[in-house]
Amino acid sequence: MFPDLGTQYEFIKTLGSGGTAKVHLALDKHSGFLVAIKTLFKDHLKDKETLEKFKSEANIYLMLDHPNIVSLKDFIIKKDSIHLVQEYVDGQTLEEYIQEVTGPIPSEVSIDIIKDIISAISHAHNKNIPLPGYNGILHLDLKPSNVMISKSRSVKIIDYGISQGNDQNRGLQKMGTPMYMAPEQLNISKRLDIRTDIYALGVLLHEMVTGSKPYSVSNKTTKEEIGDLVTNSPLLRTEKLYPGVDRRFQQIIDKATNKNPDNRHQSCQQLFAAIEELEV
Question: Which end of the chain is more exposed for a tag (fewer CB within 10 A), N or C?
Fold first, then answer.
């Protein structure tokens, strides 16, 4: 059901829902633009941790001013509901783009897309916002379904819902999508930092250039089994998944997704520079 937000927003359709919120497409009749309205499920309004995360997400979007990060248009708190009004991206997710349009994405296009993603994540990593521990922002849920590709092929990062500050202590739950989580993200006792997002960027690049997941799994594969693969097994070789892949990607992917954070690229700038070398 579309929330009661007065006359400003006109419901068009429901875009989808996740574990904590539902997203609707609406027309902002004041601006004339389409917007995506993310509404926290009422069951979570009494969950202090989830509610604070939702409010933090609003602050993060408000402070992140980058062309490749979806922008916040409004933040609405009512007595019995809370809503993020965001820029609407007319396009499809990177996951849909790979599955329905390209399969393995050509090298030149992959380079353009991953550079835009890295640029956005780097901006967040280096942004201080007035929240405790937020000396830089970690996304922590980078995956193809959280990257939007517009019809003009511009890139937008979405869903900072489980993000945390670089200096913030992590919660007591393992949050994220196992296939794209770094080994330390799967271990609740380990500290997370920018290299955790670097790992996910490497997995994203792997999937873009191969058109396939980094591990061989089925619908019956459990989260625990995927976690074991992430912790103990190397990603599948790009050339075996797609013989036409530019072999130079493999070295970059191997470094970005090293099981030991100390052996990865230590910043988005380092990863960006490695990608740029492919253009020479």
Answer: C
Active site residue 159: no
Of 141, 159, 193, 254, which one is the catalytic site residue? Answer: 141
Strand partners, 33: none
pLDDT in tens, 149-185: 999 989 999 999 889 998 888 776 788 999 999 999 9
| CATH superfamily of the domain spanning 91-279 | Transferase(Phosphotransferase) domain 1 (1.10.510.10)
Beta carbons within 8 Å of 16's beta carbon, 6+ residues apart: 22, 23
Q: pTM of the predicted model, to two decimals?
A: 0.93
Average pLDDT value over all residues in the chain: 93
For the chain, which residues make up each domain, given as ranges? 9-87, 91-279
